[in-house]
Amino acid sequence: MRRALLVLLTVLLPSFAITPVAHAGPSAAPAVTAVPANAGRGWPVSGARGVLDLAARGYVEEEYLLSGQADTFEQVGLWTEDGRWATRVATTGNPYTTRMVVVRPRDAARFTGTVVVEWLNVSFGVDIPVDFSQSYEHFVREGHVYVGVTTQKAGADKLKSLDPARYAAVNLSGDALSYDVFSQAAQAVRANPQLLGGRTPSVVLATGHSQSALRLTTFANAVQPVRRTYDGFLIHGRAALAAPIGDGVVGALSAKIRADLGVPVFVLQAETDVIASASVRQNTAQVRTWEVAGTAHADQYGLNLYNAANARDRSINDGAPTTCDKPVNSMTFRYAENAAFRHLDRWARGGAAPPTAAPIAMLLNLIILRDGDQNALGGVRLPDLDVPVAAYSPNNTGGNVPGACLLLGTTTPLPPDRIRQLYPDHATYVAKFTAAADRALRAGYLLQPDRDEAVARAQAAPVP
């Protein structure tokens, strides 16, 4: 709850500019060791086994230990809102062992050359692959490789408690190691073809959500300029603040992405996130921001996968599903995230920048403006919002996991009379929905496979 309130309520403070200073180059390459499939309980914690049928999609899931010596960093001078931050190496030679979950095409010939590396989220004390849960269908359709990295101490400690036999060697002494550990994960992906079915990558993209997005903001501004390990970043669900660079220190309270980074950054925000991030909105030559109207920080689509993994792993609440007072937000955020990954991949390869999008409409950056059905105005518009059958809210209440429902949003069906007013017959609903889907497709906010899936849902829906 404390973390959730910090994200939503932090007061943002301005600051002043300084010049970055140089420091040591990349750490020594880490060692990679395969985890036997039958080790311990026989599956990766927070992995896909029993949750997704990867084999039917032509994919395999493998797990590896990543071991090496990591540097820690410390802040130099005042960290400013423009993100041009100075750091230096604080300590070196810190031993660590963590794990990576690799999801790759069974047939290496399908691999596109793109690897997406996720900084697994530990806001609830266990690794949660948020961006994989939203965009796994896109990764599989494209032929990308996905790598989920246990980057923080809370995730590592939970692995050892849930499956001590499988993860006996895992050890992260503190979150100060996280930045170099995440950097070394990219080094490992580039240097170990066995991770990718014998292939080597063309593009390695970093992604992370919520708390991980705050840490990726710090990584992009302070570590990427000197480590240069990633070709692009998708920062999903951030607030204006950034994470601290070391243990026991406070991060910058207001942080844009530095303009001189040299690689593209896509900032992807749900409606829940915009009040906490409106002061650092950016659209520049190398930073693109989309705010997706009607969506929540986390939603029912992702929650379905998490609940299934949690029932298997019993990692939170003894495996019980997360519940809230009201139905959880079911807007199709995943469509926008899939499109964002497509754009970022092309952008990182030297292609065109993604299309811009209007921000969600707000009053004084504090109040979201809404239509008569209580749906947000402005922002990236997906067909499920432009042709609504419900009101989609960014927050929820109550629930059996403290703090979770605050971020899960709500879905409130529109009254039957309103539905019939909007759509006097089914053909009208399908025609309006199809037109909205085609607008989003032309704008670049929706990919063709997702457009087709959305229209098929509308055709099958009992509306009115």
TrEMBL record:
UniProt xrefs under InterPro entries: Abhydrolase_dom
Domain Alpha/beta hydrolase: from-to ranges: 38-455
Signal peptide: 1-24
Keyword annotations of the record: Signal
Name of the protein in question: Alpha/beta hydrolase domain-containing protein
UniProt lineage: Bacteria, Bacillati, Actinomycetota, Actinomycetes, Pseudonocardiales
